[in-house]
Amino acid sequence: MAKDYKRNPEIEEIETSEWLYSLDYVFEHGGPERVRELLQQLQIRAHKAGVQIPFTANTPYINTIPREKQPPFPGNREIERRIKSLIRWNAMAMVVNANKMEEGIGGHISTYASAATLYEIGFNHFFRGKGEGYDGDQIYFQGHASPGIYARAFLEGRISKEKIKNFRREFAKGGGLSSYPHPWLMPEFWEFPTVSMGLGPIMAIYQARFNRYLEDRGLKKDTGSKVWAFLGDGETDEPETLGAITLASREQLDNLIFVINCNLQRLDGPVRGNGKIIQELEAAFRGAGWNVIKVIWGDDWDSLLAKDKDGKLIKRMGEVVDGQYQKYTVEGGAYVREHFFGVDEELVEMVSDLTDEQLSRMRRGGHDPEKVFAAYNAAVNHKGSPTVILAKTVKGYGLGESGEGKNITHQQKKLNEDEMKEFRARFGIPISDEQIHNDPFFRPDEDSAEIKYLTERRKALGGYVPSRKTNLKPIKTPDESLFEEFYKGTEGREVSTTMVFVRILAKLLKDTEIGKNIVPIVPDEARTFGMESLFRQVGIYAHAGQLYEPVDKDSLLYYKEIKNGQILEEGITEAGSISSFIAAGTSYATHGINMIPFFIYYSMFGLQRVGDLAWAAGDIGAKGFLIGGTAGRTTLNGEGLQHQDGHSHLLAYAIPNMVAYDPAFAFELAVIIRDGIKRMFEDQENIYYYITVMNENYAMPEMPKGAKEGILKGMYKFKPSTMKNAKLKAQLFGSGTILNEVLKAQELLEKDYKVAADVWSVTSYKELRREALEVERWNMLNSNKKQKTSYITQTLSKEKGVFVAASDYVKALPDSISKWFPGTLHSLGTDGFGRSGSRKALRDFFEVDYRHVVYTTLGALVKEGKIKETVLEKAKKDLEIKPDKLNPMTS
């Protein structure tokens, strides 16, 4: 500020008025574009003068779309209000009834109560059904709002009253409804599992991008469908919610719409009691390049804003924090008059003609159908970027004294009959006191105005939502000839199973039948896995193409981005990559197109990092292959503790429809992948695969005759002993690269200790356990019938000797099948934190190398009295086994 300048409030007020008048004049005669140009020039001038302009990504705390820009509302407001009231009632009654039938069964009333208008405007005017094909919108419904979605389906005649009565009681007679959106449990109704908060938003982003991928590759026409994601403001605290929003703007995903229900409350209290969540989210999304539409105030506020010539009301709206807004909701009109408007005489005068009752009923924007319609209409017509709608609502809207706007409202599950009568009166539900007590659900007659209206609206929009289709033509499994080279082995040439996988993938991509359906997905590790040859072969997908000349353009395997590229190069994001995997793996249901995703990644950063999304992939029925690369705790040498995976196969046990394999050889991998394609895409089983591949090179043998069945079942005898009439016998089991250590142990046992050892390849402990448990359960439930025998027991029943298993994973894997062995199973594994070192040093440290396999085998023979202790002691010395070394499990 200049030294001779003295501030004069009267002069400053005149200056401000003149500037504002000038701005109004320019806007009237030059339009908004000219206003933007002038403001940019003023900003440049101010910077040159040394004025530091504070950054803000926020607009005033008012609706983005002013009253005069709202389009005419096309629907019948009164009928839509009645429909919405009926849905509110039945959603509430569903939860109350469930807890009356089964104490503590749970459920949520308040979320849908706050979001009813947000959903109903979508259902009546925007959500496109699939029609005869798969051209509809994809809608990620907020999980806690499921009672409202069920209640609408009840009015639509898609869900019976019996099912509604059995909400959260899936085992009740006649069947029930799942607690939240679960496609696994309701496969013809729900499309997307969303209630694990944060997953819906990130899956929606990558779904929208995958839709664009299919269009750019010519596999799907652009039908103008949208991806809608409904979420709560508290959900935005989850890293997955906001973690990928820049991808959506970078990819210009104008087919994506987020609707954030800003009711200002989490489970325990305010989302931002001392702040403003809508302004915070606006800044985040605008900064990320999204189109942001705020729907804060209902039409009751329009006349007040029209009177606000000097901006005092807007200033007041912006300075009140969210915690105080909650207080206004629960206290009533007199409190609002005193504490909101009462800070300024002009504001008090502004509402002098309104009663306290009128002040208490002034709606927030998310409860105003015309405001919400205007926002949705702007969103679906916006081009060039994704849109987020920030809609301010009241949690528990309509619950009155029983929970509206209160901190306890999320946990509200019960209403007494007086509270239900109050709800009935507020929303005009034509139901008697007796019905409230005995049968609280209400659906109008088929020929009523309400049923006709909602039926006609859904027909006009292409059918009911949510709904899910899966009746598509199967894919034919590739011919055996495509895989035959892998059955033959490498004739002494050393390769890794990772290299074998990349070769299989390259051949599948060239296949004339299914090549176009293959979706390679990689999180910025393609060169690590030796996949750079695919850059040139099929290209990296980029909607914008390649706008630059890559630095390696002159090389054969340059980084090639093209609009119809096939590889999804996701960058360093396993969460984003598996979201793409889910979108591709459910394309059969979403778009009626069988896509076969192969997502390869560091195995350590898979199930451990994105386990919740892997669980969701199971729920949603995703199909495809997760490929855990650089797998095995001692096989990935040098990288150390954070990278070395020795437990992902144990984590795979938890996902019921995940089929997990740890192959050692090229032929095993080929057999597994071919069978996986057959099971998932020809036989259409509802499963997906996890396969680990390693980066250790060794010669790949030829497939033994008759091995296929055992490879797929999880175990087969790979190399029998050549010793005849040996007195000492052992059965050795190996997996992955550790199978090579077991083969060395076999040789040493036979040569130095005269132990005839058979070697078995265990490709899947999980498959062996699953089949054995199925047999065990059948036998238990059918004790009066001829008992079945598990594959493990049947295969090993005639095998003699001691049993020793070694893998690059924790001992819990072999231990999990030990009870079906004919003798004690001695397990070696890699329990403990990893280390940096050579493979030799690591395998010694974790006690899974051939020396420890030999020593464990001899120890087992001592315990069975087959050899003397002195033999074991000598072996300890010869093999350099150190009994006082650190325990890898705890050190």
Protein architecture, described:
There is one protein chain. With 891 residues, the chain is of the alpha/beta class. It is 42% helix and 10% strand. It contains 35 helices and 20 strands. The protein has a 6-stranded parallel sheet, with helices on both faces. A 5-stranded parallel sheet has the order 1-2-3-5-4, sandwiched between helices. Helix 32 (812-815) links the parallel strand 19 and strand 20. The longest helix has 40 residues, at 9-48. The protein starts with 8 loop residues before the first helix and ends in a 13-residue tail after the last helix. The relative contact order is 0.08. The model has no long low-confidence stretch (mean pLDDT 93).
List the helices and strands and how they pair.
Elements: H1 9-48, H2 77-101, H3 110-125, E1 138-140, H4 146-155, H5 161-165, H6 199-216, E2 227-232, H7 239-242, H8 245-250, E3 256-262, H9 277-287, E4 291-295, H10 302-307, H11 312-319, H12 322-331, H13 333-339, H14 345-350, H15 356-360, H16 369-381, E5 387-392, H17 417-427, H18 433-438, H19 449-460, H20 484-487, E6 494-495, H21 497-510, E7 518-522, H22 533-538, E8 540-541, E9 561-562, E10 568-569, H23 574-585, H24 587-590, E11 596-602, H25 611-620, E12 625-629, H26 648-652, E13 658-661, H27 666-682, E14 688-692, E15 698-699, H28 708-713, E16 715-719, E17 728-734, H29 738-753, E18 755-762, H30 765-781, H31 791-796, E19 802-806, H32 812-815, E20 825-828, H33 839-845, H34 850-863, H35 869-878
Parallel strand pairs: 1-2, 2-3, 3-5, 4-5, 7-10, 7-11, 8-9, 11-12, 12-14, 13-14, 17-18, 17-19, 19-20
Antiparallel strand pairs: 6-15, 16-18
